[in-house]
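Aim 2 progress. For Serine carboxypeptidase-like 52, the working sequence is reproduced below.
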Amino acid sequence: MNFKSAKASCNGDYVTVNASNEGCVADMEAISKLITPIYTMHVLEPNCGITSQKPNERKLQQRSLIENTKHFPSGLGKKAAYHCHDYMYVLSEIWSNNESVREALHVREGTKGHWVRCNISGLAYTKVVKSSVPYQRNLTQTGLRALIYSGDHDMSIPHVGTQEWINSLNLTVDDTWRAWYTDAQVSGYTQRFTNDDFSLTFATVKGAGHVAIEFRPRECYAMIKRWFASFPL
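Predicted structure tokens for this construct:
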């Protein structure tokens, strides 16, 4: 019901919502309230909120993880302590700032400060291009090959949105929607598009989230290996 209402009140524009459109604002707030508790990078994973934490909050989380490790001597217990997928991001920061690791990586003392996985403060920019589709359509006039893949459990950039973007490029369907396999098991679904010498292969990765290779490394390796060899998926 929320989507139907938003579709009617927002006129299909869910990004640049007009503040004076009270119906659209209310619908978008209702939808946001429903989605916020979900881990959008993989809808089946626990939502721990680590990637959105502020630096001081991350430090507290790191300290907590280090302390937890001491209480789980081996095996399943230690694995259970890190049940959230995002924990590995925090652990990577702990690992990378360990003095013995920095020494092994030959990081010269004094040349680098505290390492962070994603320095959000350095990503400040002003959006001046509303849509890059015209540039992408220009690429379809070349002889390039492209592979686009999406985890089918990713809500941050859902595969249905990627498919809508591909449809906007006005390409010709060269290979219809079908399953692709790894070790005789369905690994996702794929479709191929062309425009003269240009080709675009789209694939979903079954069970994968936003960074598909993190969740399904074996399947992603098989997919990319076939594509580089110009074999069908």
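Residues 55-123 form one domain. This observation will guide construct design in the next reporting period.
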